[in-house]
Design goal:
With about 500 residues, this protein is α/β, with parallel strands linked by helices. It contains 18 helices and 13 strands. The chain has two domains: about 50 residues; about 425 residues, Glycosidases (TIM Barrel). An eight-stranded parallel β-barrel has the order 1-2-3-4-5-7-10-11, surrounded by five helices. Strands 6-8-9 form a three-stranded mixed β-sheet. It has a two-stranded antiparallel ribbon with strand order 12-13. Strand 8 and strand 9 form a beta hairpin.
Length: about 500
């Protein structure tokens, strides 16, 4: 086969990079690099392209019921997850969060683990029932003091605390009294609690997430009954719960604004549906934008736009939620940032000549998955999620509030966990996130889920997402290979 002079130059550069060991590092030697004066210059350019913006923040995340334990200590009230996890058969192996990772007592050493990994931001959730054991009424000072100690220790270690005010652990008393999120009274109670917390922690915490994953705790807790409180409501009731969740978010935003010091930033953390164009043609890219807006109509879309889309209302028909114009104004209270939890694509979409303007393709049976059956792996989701949130709603500050994968995480006799799958997951997903930031999408930080293995809801303790392995017999934390990867990632601020 003959080659042109141009081809010979390309081959020469490829051979040079190979001999220098740079192709093994994943550096491209595509023809597009011909514009560089020499192969070293080309290689260095590719290295710099893997970097995140200066000041990008690297962190990890946890949730109170999943890690704290100490469910009967210092005045904490019972939650719906305490009740639900103690019902035989609801959680794998009948596991509960009674002890979890015992972070309530071990947080100082856990913060040291974070500091060792170069973590600069930590997302944790406040247990509502530690502050108000019955959801409302007289606050519990011991609960307040715990979160003051936690945030003080984070700040002492140069880690910024990002507080989530609700991560699914509704006080049982509010479920008993008001049927939980079926009632507007629970949304009002949440607003009051949010305002109180922001006043108590305002001198320490400058970033608040209102609710975590509204679509998850609503759909799985009140729709199919898989999560607490285990209800299967008719469609009209489910739509009303959806509305109360977004209303609670808006009331919390207003309450925090009224009680927190100037400069406090407020957002939410939502696991939005992420449609990904199957092929990046202009038509499919537009279809993915349309799909994202409509597939998130009951949650993020109404929060960002202050209205339910026409298609959402048409689709729900007589089962549409009951709401007022004042509700919509509250729900769409201005935010300082948006947090998105991204694990996988909701589906791959194509432009279509139908009423929706798109169609969603089924996943191939051979599509890669993690050890969690629900997690279809699609790194592109970490590009399209922030890109389209920014494009659709003009968001100026974004955080990836959760991203991670479960694995088998086998402990070797000499106490090593070679989770190469998780390292590969982070590398592939973060390459897509870096691409988004390089294009100007304003992602300011990334929280890996999770700092350590923990109570993974109905999967119990058998499903592991952590950077640190937890031996549930001794509660020892053992770093996985992914922890070492994250440490370098955060230090160098680039995909490694």
């Amino acid at each position: 086969m003959s080659t042109s002079k141009n081809d010979q130059k390309i081959l020469g550069r490829r051979n040079f990079l190979k001999s220098a060991g740079l192709t093994a590092a994943g550096l491209s030697v595509a023809p597009a690099l011909i514009s560089f004066k020499n192969p070293v210059e080309a290689a260095l350019a590719n290295i710099s392209e893997r970097s995140f913006p200066e000041g990008f923040l690297w962190g990890t995340a946890t949730a109170a019921y999943q890690v704290e334990g100490a469910v009967n200590e210092d005045g904490r009230g019972t939650t719906i997850w305490d009740t639900f996890s103690h019902i035989p058969g609801k959680v794998k192996n009948n596991d509960t969060g009674d002890v979890a990772c015992d972070m309530y007592h071990r947080y100082p050493s856990d913060i040291k683990l974070m500091k060792d990994m170069n973590v600069k931001i930590f997302r944790f959730s406040v247990a509502w029932s530690r502050i108000f054991p019955d959801g409302t009424g007289t606050p519990n000072q011991k609960g307040i003091d715990f979160y003051k100690r936690l945030t003080d220790d984070l700040l002492a270690n140069d880690i910024q605390p990002f507080a989530t005010l609700y991560h699914w652990d509704l006080p049982q008393a509010l479920h008993d009294k008001y049927k939980g999120w079926e009632s507007r009274e629970t949304a009002k109670a949440f607003g009051d609690y949010a305002g109180f917390i922001s006043k108590q922690l305002g001198d320490r915490v400058k970033h608040y997430f209102t609710l975590n994953e509204m679509s998850t705790f609503v759909e799985l807790g009140y729709g199919n009954g898989i999560f607490a409180p285990g209800l299967q409501l008719p469609q009209a009731g489910l739509n009303q719960v959806r509305h109360h969740a977004v209303l609670a978010h808006g009331l919390a935003v207003q309450a925090i604004r009224a009680n927190a010091p100037s400069g406090t930033k407020i957002g939410l953390a939502e696991n939005l549906s992420v449609p990904v164009p199957i092929i990046d043609t202009p038509e499919n890219i537009k279809a993915a934008e349309i799909a994202m807006r409509e597939e998130n109509a009951g949650y993020l879309t109404v929060v960002m736009e202050g209205k339910y889309t026409d298609k959402f209302l048409k689709r729900t028909g007589a089962d549409a939620p009951k709401f007022t114009e004042e509700d919509l104004k509250i729900i769409s209270s201005p935010l300082d940032f948006v947090g998105i939890n991204v694990y996988n694509p909701a589906g791959y979409v194509q432009a279509a000549d139908n009423e929706d303007g798109y169609k969603t393709l089924p996943f191939a049976k051979s599509q890669p998955r993690s050890t969690s059956a629900w997690q279809v792996l699609g790194p592109e989701s970490l590009y399209w999620a922030p890109k389209n949130v920014h494009k659709l709603w003009g968001v100026r500050e974004l955080y990836i509030t959760e991203n991670g994968t479960s694995g088998t995480d086998e402990l070797t006799p000499d106490k090593h966990i070679y989770d190469t799958d998780r390292v590969s997951f982070m590398r592939n997903y973060l390459t897509q996130l870096q691409k988004a930031t390089a294009e100007g999408v304003p992602v300011k930080g990334y929280f890996y889920w999770s700092l350590m293995d923990n109570f993974e809801w109905t999967s119990g303790y058998g499903t592991r997402f952590g950077l640190y392995y937890v031996d549930y017999k001794t509660l020892e934390r053992i770093p996985k290979e992914s922890a070492a990867y994250f440490k370098v990632l955060a230090r160098d601020n680039k995909v490694v």
